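Q: Hi! First time doing this. I have a protein sequence and I read that you can turn it into a structure. Is that right? Here it is:
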Amino acid sequence: MTVVRKQSKFSGKWGEMDLPLTQQELDEGLKQSWSANPGIGTKHMQDIFPQLNADQREFLMSGCTPEEWNEMFAYQGEDDE
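A: Yes, that's right. Below is the predicted 3D structure, encoded as structure tokens:
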């Protein structure tokens, strides 16, 4: 397990996530990712890290935690009742 600390591209807040990867797996995978290395990497996160769920991959790409994502995209409208 590797604890990853990233700053959110959306809010600027720092977050941490414990990922089921070794530091070497993380480093090697991020080198291949087009989202982590624009213009250099060529692979999608879901192809590089199939063992991670969508929240974990989003955190690697943007630093956005599931809680922050829910805050940003939570439905703010009135109840349908």
